[in-house]
Amino acid sequence: MLTDLTENPTCIECGLCREVCPVFQTQRQEEYSPRGRAILGYAGLQTLVFYQCTLCRACRAICPVEHDPSGETLRAGLISAGIETEANQLMIANIRTYGNPFGPLAEGELPKTLTCC
Ligand code: SF4
Ligand code: SF4
Asked: Membrane-spanning regions, if any (predicted)?
């Protein structure tokens, strides 16, 4: 679901979401936290960091103002601006060409790499 950013409650930068975000738990850098993502979004920056989100919405569940991480909306903006990871481009191309995200596979063959955005 795409979030209308004009109706999204403003992040008050309390930081509660950092402790429930699985991405921040592994990266431990503010730019990967929901709060950091909100700040980057308010600054109008379009960055590959927005792809570093599982879309789990655990941050929204704990957020006192119910700020929506709006990951889908931010990614849609990136795609519109032509900002994509190489892995994402390859995955989409494979789906279009081979009908799967991995590329050409023989019957029963396992993919050598797992492709994700
Ligand atoms: S997104 Fe919500 S929980 Fe996270 S810093 Fe902003 S107001 Fe606090
Ligand atoms: S929706 Fe994204 S930013 Fe929010 S907790 Fe999940 S991974 Fe973190």
From this structure: none
Q: Is the CB of 13 under 6 A from ligand 1?
A: yes
> 52 with 101, same domain?
no
Instruction: Give the DSSP letter string of 18-40.
Output: GGT-HHHHHH--GGGSHHHHHHH
Range in 28-32, 71-75, 80-84, 110-114 the model is least confident about: 110-114
* CA 20–ligand 2 middle distance (angstroms): 8
3-state secondary structure of 92: helix
pTM for the full model?
A: 0.82
Our count of domains for the chain comes to 2
The bound ligand whose nearest atom lies closest to the alpha carbon of 70 is: 2
Cα 22 from Cα 62, distance rounded (Å): 13
Q: Are residues 88 and 64 in the same domain?
A: no
Range of the domain at 18: 5-83
Q: Whose CA is nearest to atom 4 of ligand 1?
A: 17
Residue with CA at minimum distance from ligand 2 atom 5: 21
